[in-house]
Amino acid sequence: MDVKNMTMVTEFIILGLSDNPQLQIPLFLVFLLGNLVIITVTCADPRLHTPMYFFLSNLSLTDICYSSTIVPKLLEIFLLENKTITYSRCFVQLFFFLGSTSVEAFLLTAMAYDRYTAVCDPLHYSIIMSQRLCVLLATTSWMIGFLNSGTITASVTRLSFCDSNMINHIFCDLMPLLKLSCSDTAGPETVLFVEGALISVPVFLVTLTSYKYIIAAILRIHSVEGKRKAFFTCSSHLTVVSLYYLSLFFMYLRPNSTYSLEKGKIMSVLYKAFIPMLNPIIYSLRNKEVKNALRKVIGK
């Protein structure tokens, strides 16, 4: 194919979730509700300064990053019906989304280690999970997460986009951009595979190993009440981890040739809107301190 005869894309058009105007306001409310819940949980109680709440606040911050990256453009699509996004803004959106996704993986791993220490070594918990270690783990998570995002985004910017500029998705996500490109996508796919092998898989294995020891420790507890308390200590985090990795594996850890745009769009709605909205709810339903913080905010 002669590249000289192609029309190079300078902007994209995001098709969004639906062209039906009757669905625009309800969809807007869904994303807005998710943002409000996240902000409420993050700011609910300044006295929640334990390691678990410190990491939960950082996790909430990544959810806000998701929303801040995706929702403004979605509001333009829903309310103003402006589906055009510039080339540079599209890749900025991709960078911050991938960065938030990577940071969340590291934070969930740090939270798994926190739960492992709480259950398997409770006598030394306060010494091991010091404020210095928590800050170090969180800072490292943010730095490596966005470094990983920058590497992947840079590889995608080297692709050519010709003729069609219709992104059949709710934002500039990685897989739809690879589908849209008119050049060889082997480079970005290789980068994604290497990043997964060097970062995503080890991080997942660390989380899995932590829960292996946690479950073994819980099974060694003799009293039923003791097992119940230990299980509820980890159940909220385990639920969030399961939702995160199931959706992540479905969306990204598969060959580009088997990726379905429609299924990917549905999973994106679940992952970018409903899961960030569910995360604080999952923690609040399992935790008295978070419930009390929410009651205070609602009371005010």
How does this model look, in words?
By secondary structure, the chain is mostly helical. The chain has a single domain (11-299), classed as Rhodopsin 7-helix transmembrane proteins (Rhopdopsin 7-helix transmembrane proteins, Up-down Bundle). Helix content is 74%, strand content 3%. It has 10 helices and 3 strands, in the order βααβαααβααααα. It has helices spanning 24-43, 51-80, 87-120, 125-128, 131-157, 174-180, 186-219, 224-251, 261-285, 288-299; strands spanning 11-14, 84-86, 166-167. A 3-stranded mixed sheet has the order 2-1-3. Helix 2 (51-80) crosses helix 9 (261-285), helix 3 packs parallel to helix 7 and helix 5 packs antiparallel against helix 7 (186-219). It is globular and about 65 Å long.
Tell me the layout of helices and strands.
Blueprint: E1 11-14, H1 24-43, H2 51-80, E2 84-86, H3 87-120, H4 125-128, H5 131-157, E3 166-167, H6 174-180, H7 186-219, H8 224-251, H9 261-285, H10 288-299
Helix pairs in contact: 1-2, 1-9, 2-3, 2-9, 3-5, 3-7, 3-8, 5-7, 7-8, 8-9
The CATH C-level class name:
Mainly Alpha
**Large-scale geometry:** globular
**Largest sheet data:** 3 strands, mixed
Q: How many strands appear in the DSSP assignment?
A: 3
Helix content: over 70%
Estimated radius of gyration: 21 Å
Taken in chain order, the helices and strands follow as EHHEHHHEHHHHH
CATH architecture, please? Up-down Bundle
Total DSSP helices = 10
Number of domains: 1
**What is the terminal-to-terminal distance?**
65 Å
What percentage of the residues does DSSP assign to strands (E)? under 5%
- Output mean pLDDT: 76
